[in-house]
Amino acid sequence: MPPGITLAAAGPELSAANTGFLLICSALVMLMTPGLAFFYGGMVRVKSTLNMLMMSFISLGIVTVLWVLYGFSVAFGTDHGGLLAWNSDYVGLGGIGLTELWDGYTIPVYVFAVFQLMFAVLTPALISGALADRVKFGAWALFVALWATVVYFPVAHWVWGTGGWAFELGVIDFAGGTAVHINAGAAALGVILVIGKRVGFKKDPMRPHSLPLVMLGAGLLWFGWFGFNAGSWLGNDDGVGALMFLNTQVATAAAMLAWLAYEKLRHGACTTLGAASGAVAGLVAITPSGGSCSPLGALAIGAVAGVLCAMAVGLKFKLGYDDSLDVIGVHLVGGIAGSLLVGLFATGGGQSEAQGLLYGGGFGQLGKQAAGVGAVLLYSFVASAVLALLIDRAIGMRVSEDEEISGIDQVQHAETAYDFSGAGGGTAPRTTAAPPGASHGPAAARTPDNRPASASGNESASGNEKVDA
């Protein structure tokens, strides 16, 4: 080599292993949306089951189309002022080479785009659990399209996009504590304050119609969450992805046990609904924090989230907002807890060198986390409430009271979830109302108005129908 001439540093090369890994993770995250549908679908009354399933499934269609047309460009294009992004090559995903690598990583742009698409699909579906039993399906579909455009795509850029203000500030959000869970939870609160309570809220029993479906959904969510969390390190071979995988399991287990312990002390029993809800609370809390803490830190984060979320689900009775399936109590509170606890448990040896208060880092990182939490919460809450109000004024968000009482499945979808017709064409015995005073779970678990409720605090779901086997 002639004197004075040096070779340029070699850039990253496409990795078949990382590409395959991220495609598998993308499929796992996609599975979370049907898992969420089952989780929510089991918690509502029989007459709302199909509507709840469809409110999740429709997101797979709407958000996918918007992501291709402009969503990826708004979220991950060239930054403009830290708030929005845009790249004309990403519009329609047509100006991207098949082997073009994503921003210094070893995976193609298309792989990153499809992985992030699955996050964008799941997030508005999370909101649907707060709105069970009472929202027109067409109005919900319109809300999903507008909310993804106005709220999710910009917030994803703030948190994860190069140049996004939260990203540049140093807010740590490994896989979506702010962009996904706080975003969805704050949106849920904004919308339910606009559309109001269900008919019979705090008066009629609204218990889960199928706890096996709830457990199936929780299991699918737990399984898919490994792709959600570990995949977010994009295949880097430095051990952080493996740490996140381990911490996901550890925090989820700790949160489930903590929720059940709280139930046992408060209500006298450990319920299946509590186990499922506690697991989801742990998954939510470790999502922003798992890449920056140790496994012991993950244990603490999971335990704290399990207890806080178990306590938070009862706030709707005291404050009077009708969060049907506890999206606020689990996703908003769990997301806030996990995001803020980064400021305590970040070791400086994981995804970044930032250290939390318990590791000698002072209050600096905690302040950054609080800024990210507050900004996303406020923006999503206000924007979501405005969108819901505009849709309500334009086409109406709610079904009529008579339609809500008779059953939203039949009204909105012309179907019912279960066919009890006999094999010979006869009709099976009609379902019967639960006897007065019957409860789901221990007798000690009651709502503030002395009405039976599940011990987990989630009164939401199920009807007073009892299906004959």
From TrEMBL:
What molecular functions are annotated in GO for this chain?
ammonium channel activity
* Chain intervals with Low complexity compositional bias: 428-445, 453-469
Q: Which UniProt keywords apply?
A: Ammonia transport, Cell membrane, Membrane, Transmembrane, Transmembrane helix, Transport
Per the annotation, which location comes first and is thus the protein's main one? Answer: membrane
Topology of this chain in the membrane: Multi-pass membrane protein
Kindly indicate where the leader peptide sits in this chain. none
GO cellular component terms attached to this protein's record:
plasma membrane
Q: Which InterPro entries match?
A: Ammonium/urea_transptr (IPR029020), Ammonium_transpt (IPR001905), Ammonium_transpt_CS (IPR018047), NH4_transpt_AmtB-like_dom (IPR024041)
Region annotated Disordered sits at: 419-469
Highest taxon in the source lineage: Bacteria
Report the family membership. Belongs to the ammonia transporter channel (TC 1.A.11.2) family.
Keyword Transmembrane in record: yes
Start and end of every Ammonium transporter AmtB-like domain? Answer: 21-418
Q: What role does this protein play?
A: Involved in the uptake of ammonium/ammonia (NH(4)(+)/NH(3)).
Q: Where are the transmembrane segments?
A: 20-40, 52-76, 107-127, 139-160, 180-199, 211-228, 240-262, 269-290, 296-315, 327-350, 370-391
Pfam families in the record, alphabetically?
Ammonium_transp (PF00909)
Query: What is the official name of this protein in its record?
Result: Ammonium transporter
